[in-house]
Amino acid sequence: MHRRAAALAVPLTAIALVVSSCGSIPEDWKTPAFLRMNAEELDPRLPDVTGEVGEEPEITFPDNEPPEEEISGIVSKGSGEDVLVGAEDLVVANVVQYQWTGPGEGEAMEGQSSYASGAPDLVRMNEMPEYITETLVSQPLGSRAVYVFPPLSQEEIEQAQAMGQEAPEGASVLVIDLMDRYSQGAVVPGEQTDDGGGDLPTVTQDGHSRPEIDIPEGDAPEDLEVAPLIEGEGAEVEDGQQVIVQYTGVRWDAEENGSHEVFDSTWDRGGAPFDTTIGGGAVIEGWDEGIVGANVGDRLMLVVPGSMAYGETEEEAMGGPVGTLVFVVDVLGAYDNPPPPEPEETEGEGADEEASDPEAEDPEADTEE
C-alpha cells in the first residue's frame, strides 16, 4: 500500500537507544523499582514526578548523585484495570526526557517532550527493548512510568556520537504516560450500515476477521470512490496527521483463474494495526485523498483508480498491484505529528535578507498588484 518504502522513526525508540548506547543494558544495571512481585514501594532513588497523567509532568530530582544502575517504576497507576497494555500492542504514549546532572539538579531536554510538541509517540511494544516494555506490559491505561538510566561511560558516549546521536549529560530520565492502545485485530466499533453493492464492490465481515470484498461485473469507476460502511463519531482526520488503521486490499481486475486475491492486508499479518502519516505522499494518492476528512471510527471502502495508486501497467506499478484497487480501511485513530524543525539561522542572515528586501526599505510600499 506504500508508494515507496520509508523508515518511520519512533522517537521513544531513538531515546532508548541514546540512553543505552547500543541498545543493551547490562544485567547488573537492571534494578526495577517494584522488585517484581507485587511490591508497592518505589525505589527512593527515583525522581519525584507529580501532576496529572495527560499533562506535562513536574519533576524533582533527589539530593543525591544519580544511581549507577537502571531503575524504573510505575509512579501513577491508571484506573482502567480492564484496559491493560499488551506485549503486542501499538501504544499511544506521551514521553518526556530529562537530564539528571547532579544532586537535586536536572533539566528537561530540549525537543524531547511530546507534550510540548503536541504529538504523542506511537510505540510498537514488540519492537521496544525489554527494559522498556517489562515495566509497561499489563499496566492499565492512564499509568505513568519513570525510568532512570545511568550516565554513559566515555566508550558509550563515543559509540553514540559515532551513530550520529547526541550523548546526554549525566543520567537520563524518561517519563512515559500510557494514553491509549490498539491491540492486534482491533476494528472500529459499530455495525455496518452499508455494504456497498450496486456498481461498487460488496463488503462483508464476520466479527474481527478479514473483510471479504466481492467485485461486481463491469468496468471499474474512473474516479476515486469513497463509501463509508461504518460512520464513526470521532474527530475528523486532518492532513499531516498520524493515522492508525486496519486495511485489506484487492485488485478490481480478476486473476487468470477469475478470483480477486488479496494483495495486502493487516489481517494477514496477525491483525497488527498499521500507522502512517496521511496527506503528505507517504502512501498512495487514493489514500491521502480518501482518508483525510474521514472521521475516526469510520470504516471506508476506497475504490482507487490506477492513476491514484501504483499505475495502470506493470512498468508504471514497478512491482505493485496494477490497475484499480479496492480497499477496506478501518480508521482506528488519528494523532498530530510533531511540527517540522525550524531551519537554523546563520549569524547575520536576517539582516542580509532585510537589506535585500525592497519592501523592507519602505514600510509604506504598496504590496497589492
Would you write up a description of this structure?
- The chain is of the alpha+beta class and about 375 residues long.
- The protein has two domains: about 170 residues, Chitinase A, domain 3, CATH 3.10.50; about 130 residues, Chitinase A, domain 3, CATH 3.10.50.
- Helix content is about 15%, strand content about 30%.
- The chain has eight helices and 18 strands.
- Strands 3, 5, 6, 7, 9 and 10 form a six-stranded antiparallel β-sheet that branches.
- A hairpin with a 7-residue loop joins strand 11 and strand 12.
- The longest helix has 9 residues.
- It starts with 10 loop residues before the first helix and ends in an 8-residue tail after the last helix.
- About 35% of the residues are buried.
Structural class: alpha+beta
Distance between the termini: 45 Å
Tally of strands: 18
Using the coordinates above, name the CATH class of the largest domain: Alpha Beta
- Structural domain tally: 2
Examine the coordinates and then state which fold CATH places here, giving the name of the CATH topology of the largest domain: Chitinase A, domain 3
Low-confidence stretches: 1-11, 13-39, 351-369
